[in-house]
Specification:
Elements lengths: L4 E6 L6 E7 L4 E6 L4 E5 L3 E5 L4 E8 L2 E6 L2 E6 L5 E6 L7 E8 L5 E7 L7 E7 L2 E9 L2 E6 L5 E6 L4 E7 L5 E10 L6 E7 L5 E6 L3 E5 L5 E6 L5 E7 L2 E6 L12 E5 L13
Length: 279
């Protein structure tokens, strides 16, 4: 592993920290504790919201609005008031599943994965919401993760963590997949479990790897470049703000002093600006 400056960004110990996004207009990081059913934000001030169901991922719509994924739907969330309005249901009639990893794409769509609450085999799927349409893209997913996009908008990445393989799929001009996904990075030989991902401005993919306390960088051909160690073994998802990277983690099931905290790294590269969702 290579050295990089790592600091605690926020010491909230999330049971399952996930879904970090940097809101470029508010200059604040938003992230979730899925199992705690909570959303946090930290910029000029710190904010927190509590919900009555699992919440997991979001994209920014405008200065005061997020598109937020929950166990039952995609919601227009008002940051100022805390009010939310349903945009579209998401497996609302399936009590087995909840939302998990998600991210906005360069075309203004929003990809969201689902999974079983208890990681039931093949219970989840990956969807895309775009201009009023929610379409299921891939099914039989056990743990949906690693949703992210190449800077040119022509490639999407995702994983079923259970498979230990990160997939990639070509996209058309509107951001819909064309053809079948193919294996981009196979981590089975190394025994690594891919969790959340983000792609930097140079096209390198950064993957938080569950259980080993690191974020690993792979180039646009899927070749390993380097990794950065973090002081929490259950690293879950990275996000960029310029040259800063934030990484969430999970505390459930481990006895570590910094497990569940959110970290800040200076990896020495420029990230993509977080894409804006078009509603």
């Amino acid at each position: 592993m290579t050295g990089a400056q790592v600091a605690v960004f926020d010491d909230q110990r999330c049971a399952l920290g996930e879904g970090p996004i940097w809101h470029p207009e508010r200059k604040a990081l938003f992230w979730f504790d899925i199992l705690g059913k909570a959303l946090f934000a930290k910029g000029e001030r710190r904010q927190a919201w509590q919900f009555d169901e699992y919440v997991s991922a979001a994209g920014w719509v405008d200065h005061d609005t997020l598109l937020m994924a929950s166990a039952t739907g995609l919601w227009r969330f008002d940051i100022c008031t805390g009010a939310r309005d349903l945009v579209v249901g998401l497996e609302a009639d399936n009590a087995v599943t909840r939302s998990n990893d998600g991210r906005a794409d360069p075309q203004g769509g929003f990809w969201i994965g689902t999974m079983g609450v208890d990681a039931e085999a093949h219970a989840g799927a990956i969807y895309r919401y775009y201009r009023g349409e929610l379409r299921r893209l891939f099914d039989r997913i056990t743990i949906s993760n690693a949703i992210c996009f190449a800077p040119d908008g022509q490639t999407a990445y995702f994983t079923d963590t259970f498979s230990q393989r990160i997939q990639r799929v070509a996209l058309d001009a509107d951001g819909w997949p064309t053809g079948a996904p193919e294996v981009f990075i196979d981590l089975r030989a190394d025994g690594l479990n891919p969790d959340g991902c983000v792609v930097d401005a140079g096209g390198n993919l950064w993957n938080a790897q569950w259980g080993v306390g690191r974020v690993a960088c792979y180039d646009a051909d899927g070749v390993f470049q380097r990794s950065i160690a973090l002081p929490a073994s259950q690293t879950t998802c990275p996000a960029f703000d310029g040259t800063r990277m934030f990484v969430t983690s999970a505390a459930q099931g481990v006895d570590e002093p910094q497990a569940g905290m959110t970290f800040e790294i200076e990896p020495g590269v420029m990230g993509q600006r977080e894409h804006q969702v078009i509603l």
